[in-house]
Amino acid sequence: MRAAVYRGPNDLRIETVPVPRPGPDDLLVKVSVCGVCPTDIKKIHYGTVPPPRIFGHETAGTIVRIGKRVHNLRVGDRVALHHHVPCLDCHACRHRAFAQCATYKRTGITAGFEPAGGGFAEFVRVLPFVQPGVVKIPAENSFEEGAMLEPVNTVLKAVKRLTLLPGDSVLVAGQGPIGLMFTRLLQLLGMRVLASDLLEKRLKLAKRFGAEWTFNPTQQPGEKKPSNPKSSPSLGTSSAAKRQLDAAVLAVPSDAALHQALSQVRGGAQILLFAHTKRGALTELDLASVCVDEKDLIGSYSADFTLQREVARLVFSRKMDVRPLITHRFTLEQTAQAVALAANPTPDSLKILVGGSHH
């Protein structure tokens, strides 16, 4: 089969590799489509893991072979895969810190070499410990929607870390694919969302996804009228913003956005970091804002396996309609171009998929 093999920093090569051989407890899935995720981009660009590997973990496809000890799935099932599943029993899992579970940290889907997701290949082998994360895709939904379950899961997990009340105002900084998912899920939960981005096109999309107000953080107050001037907690009017913002979600790894959010949210509010994943990134904070003002600074990383059914309902019912987020589709042979575009997005690019686009 063909696969995009990682051979070192910024070195992805289309190679011919053996089709993985499933054991009696495994599945073999023909990949239809796989999303390009920032965590894979980071590994490819910075060479944070040794080669060779086949990346890609936002994967959907069709089961083509089943081990004799697998009973709950059938050949021909159209499925979305989940490459990390926690043990649900260890100390971390009992604290619901699933991403810190040793079992969860193991990757259970491979197209060959050290398991690394494998979605940038024609076939993947699904190991038994991640099979509880397999989700069947309804006939009326596409493989592309199935591939979006994992990123939507990471966002819903993060939203559930916030202690919000209906009608609360939440800033979502950054309106890329993840930020837009935050905007929509928060709006579905009854929040009033203030969305920020540097690109006008994305601010328009944020409105479609449920943002009540939008703003460009680089524009000075008064430079451009907010879309709803009477009620807008535009960050230019900090007293109004301080009174109204109950939480802030940072879907961009921007220190400036963090400091702005800390100064704008009310006392007792929460600030959630979602994109600050690079180790060693330091910033200065006024710690009294955490202690005296009781502003919680929290993080969320990766997915929550226990939310799989809820995520599937949201995506497959199209309450969380992911289709407008998918802007570019590349063939397997074009994986390197797909990764390059995802790493350097244009005003027109949001979610990028690799593989076929068919039911």
Describe this structure in words.
There is one protein chain. The chain has 359 residues and is an alpha/beta fold. It folds into two domains: 2-149 and 312-355, Medium-chain alcohol dehydrogenases, catalytic domain (Quinone Oxidoreductase, Chain A, domain 1, Alpha-Beta Complex), CATH 3.90.180; 162-299, NAD(P)-binding Rossmann-like Domain (Rossmann fold), CATH 3.40.50. The chain has helices at residues 38-46, 91-94, 102-105, 143-147, 149-159, 177-188, 200-208, 238-244, 255-264, 288-291, 308-316, 335-343, and strands at residues 2-8, 11-16, 27-35, 58-66, 78-80, 109-110, 123-126, 135-136, 169-173, 192-196, 213-215, 245-250, 270-273, 296-299, 326-330, 351-355. The strands form three sheets. Strands 3, 4, 5, 6, 7, 8, 15 and 16 form an eight-stranded mixed β-sheet that branches. Strands 11-10-9-12-13-14 form a six-stranded parallel β-sheet, sandwiched between helices. Helix 12 links the parallel strand 15 (326-330) and strand 16. Helix 5 (149-159) crosses helix 6. The radius of gyration is 21 Å and the shape is globular. The two termini are 21 Å apart.
